[in-house]
Design goal:
Helices cover 44% and strands 16% of the residues. The chain is built from ten helices and eleven strands. Helix 2 (43-59) crosses helix 10, helix 6 packs across helix 7 and helix 6 (139-150) packs across helix 10 (264-288). The relative contact order is 0.16. The structure holds NADP nicotinamide-adenine-dinucleotide phosphate.
């Protein structure tokens, strides 16, 4: 079984980005800028946000971090988003999810100027993705597609089974694979006979957040398996598939798999940097027109 090394590809993407950003910075007089908002101090979210800021800085993207207390009201958050929407120096805006329960996530995501919506979660970008038009593609599905392409995985005509239908991963992943001419089946918690469906997957993308749900009997021989899940088991980071208890049997069945860590995670961050840079270039060019 081949390991699809997302960490290595992400490193290459970052080094190319650093060169391009340096060039654009001297040409256009400013670096791309990503504003990141975190409400509250959830430890996992704090780590994600810090890593995003660090990754931005490494490639020359200016990161503008907004750490807001848990008690921040929806109106206060909307007011900050309005300020960032109107700030010409800000290219991308990212609101770290999940938000506290007293804030309506959809109201917040809809308030971000969709041209600056670096996560691609605004309904406008969701709609543009569904109609195969130019849009900002959510970072995790975009990173997965880049990794599959760099591994020369043939997608057109392949039966892709996506487990998970979240707005963040499952749904945009399914749309993206459709755009690439795969035949797509989407499974979720109400799916009947999940093993029957997963066994049809020439490409199996697992985004559940549940370790050990997938075993070797559920995998088609020769399948390409993308493990999106991030779970903590006994203090160790594991995927939904990669380091499950059935891993040695899975290794004999699948043709390739993404590891956890080092697979989809680094590709998600690389795609965030790419999205920020793409938005910056679009904004620079439209300001010049
Ligand atoms: P989510 O919003 O909780 O969605 C999970 C999906 O899994 C839902 O659609 C749910 O179905 C489905 N599901 C749950 N139990 C199932 C079962 N027994 N059988 C079939 N489907 C089941 O999570 P998410 O945001 O999509 O993230 C999924 C996982 O990926 C998490 O572990 C998350 O940490 C990880 N993740 C990783 C990255 C990365 O960069 N590596 C990025 C994003 C997310 P229903 O819709 O019916 O509830």
């Amino acid at each position: 079984m081949r390991i699809m090394n997302g960490a290595a590809l992400a490193k290459k993407i970052r080094s190319v980005l650093a060169i391009e950003i340096d060039f654009c910075k001297s040409k256009y007089g400013r670096a791309p800028k990503l504003s990141v908002i975190l409400v509250g101090n959830d430890p996992a979210s704090m780590t994600y946000v810090k890593n995003k800021g660090k990754s931005c800085n490494e490639v020359g993207i200016e990161s503008d971090m907004h750490y807001l207390p848990f008690s921040t009201s929806q109106e206060e958050l909307l007011s900050l988003i309005k300020t960032l929407n109107e700030d010409d120096s800000v290219d991308g805006i990212l609101v770290q999810l999940p938000l506290p329960k007293h804030i309506d996530k959809n109201v917040i995501l809809n308030a971000i100027d969709y041209h600056k919506d670096v996560d691609g979660l605004h309904p406008m970008n969701v709609g543009l993705l569904n109609t195969s038009e130019e849009c900002i593609i959510p970072c995790t599905p975009k990173g997965i597609l880049s990794l599959l392409k760099s591994e020369n995985v043939e997608i057109a005509g392949k039966h892709t089974v996506v487990i998970g239908r979240s707005n963040l991963v499952g749904k945009p992943m399914a749309q993206l694979m459709l755009r690439e001419n795969a035949s797509v089946t989407v499974c979720h918690s109400k799916t009947r006979d999940l093993p029957y469906l997963t066994r049809q997957g020439e490409i199996l993308i697992v985004a559940i957040g549940c370790p050990n749900l997938i075993n070797a009997d559920m995998i088609k021989p020769g399948a390409i398996v993308v493990d999106v899940g991030i779970n903590s088991v006994d203090g160790k980071m594991v995927g939904d598939v990669y380091n499950s208890i059935d891993v040695s049997s899975i290794e004999k069945k699948a043709a390739a798999i993404t590891p956890v860590p080092g697979g989809v995670g680094p590709m998600t961050i690389a795609s965030l940097l790419e999205n920020t840079f793409e938005i910056y270039k679009r904004r620079i060019h439209s300001a010049k027109c």
